[in-house]
Amino acid sequence: MRWAFAKYTGCGNDFILFDNRQGRFPLSTPGLIQRLCHRQWGIGADGVILLESSSLAHARMRIFNADGSEAEMCGNGVRCLVHWMGSLGFSSPSYTIETMLRTLKAWRMGDQVRIEMGSPSRLQWHVPLRFESACLFVHHLDTGVPHAVLFVEDVDAVELNRLGPFIRHHSLWHPHGANVSIGQQIDHTLFKVRTFERGVEGETLACGTGATAVALAAAYLHHLVGPLSMQTRSGDCLQISFKLAGQRFKDVTMTGPAICTFEGEIDLPENDEQTACFSVASNSIDSIQL
After folding, report:
1. Could you tell me how many helices (H) and strands (E) the chain has, helices first?
2. Considering Cα of 33, then 51, then 49, then 280, what sign does the dihedral take?
3. Who contacts 59 (Cβ-Cβ below 8 Å, separation ≥6)?
4. What is the pLDDT of residues 82-102, one digit of tens each?
5. 3-state DSSP of 79-96
6. Residues with catalytic annotation?
7. How far apart are CA 68 and CA 50, in angstroms?
């Protein structure tokens, strides 16, 4: 069956978006998500997002990681979805998006989208972990998905592909594991952040829930007032706003870019033996046949 899709990026965190309001997307096809996300054999992305109908909100978002697992939520993904909805005929100044765990409000402002992140849960501070010869103190926050946050002096010097899997699979976060986000304070309101993501099982160029977790942890630990700017691995920044009273965060929002890089159509396979074939149209070239 021929499906239209849009390829989006939020600060380098990229997604393939499909309109599944008719409920026909072949999720039961083995290996389909992994193949779509494969950067050599598919379209290539950190995840696949499905726009679905909702009785609670303007729309429902389902997001699948590159390994095929379904995630609870994705901040960059919500922003990309909201931006795309404008091209599908949605014309509200604000939107409500149903996710697996909560319904979020979002506002589109040109290529920028602001979304509610909800209040973080399962807060744990100064959790000691021994990694090789070092004793690390990490902070756990669930900002839509769980994150273990670590502050370092130089984020660029950290071998995140070694450290990330150790913390991500630590027994403390069993059975679901945790994303791993590291932060470095540059000045009073600017941080550099990197994230090792579950489901991708590697570092991504940006993670919205990770940037939010780093911002909130920094605010609590160092008594900072928002908004805070989180510079992602791609170099793009996310603005995190919030109010903090004691250990309670409220009015948490994230603002950042959402950009459509290209659109196309694909014949989705019905089983693992079939091959997906697609054509693409983008802003820079009229069409490509692949």
Report:
1. 4, 20
2. positive
3. 21, 51, 52, 53, 81, 85, 90, 95, 97, 98
4. 999 999 999 888 999 999 989
5. HHHHHHHHHHCCCCCEEE
6. 74, 207
7. 13
Instruction: Specify the 3-state DSSP secondary structure of 211.
Output: helix
Per-residue pLDDT tens over the stretch 154-178: 999 999 999 999 999 999 988 889 9
Question: How many whole angstroms separate alpha carbon 118 and alpha carbon 142?
Answer: 10
Helix (H) or strand (E) holding 161: helix 160-168
C-alpha triplet 46, 50, 52: angle, nearest 5°: 160
Q: Are strands 179-185 and 146-151 parallel, antiparallel or unpaired?
A: parallel
Taking alpha carbons only, the member of 133, 140, 220, 131 closest to residue 172 is 140
The answer to whether 140 touches 127, Cβ cutoff 8 Å, is yes
- Does the pLDDT at position 288 exceed 50? no
Find out whether 77 and 9 touch, Cβ atoms under 8 Å.
Answer: no
Helix axis angle for 75-85 and 208-222, nearest 10°, is 130
DSSP type of residue 4:
E
Residue 144 phi, psi (nearest 5) = 120, -35
In whole angstroms, give the CA distance from residue 215 to residue 98: 24
211 within 8 A of 238, measured Cβ to Cβ: yes
- Quick one: pLDDT at residue 15? 98
* Residue 1 banded pLDDT, cuts 50, 70, 90: confident
- pLDDT band of residue 287 (cuts 50, 70, 90) is very low
How far apart, in whole angstroms, are the C-alpha atoms of residue 165 and residue 128? 16
**Predicted pLDDT of residue 92:** 85
**Which pair of structure tokens corresponds to residue 118?**
């909800």
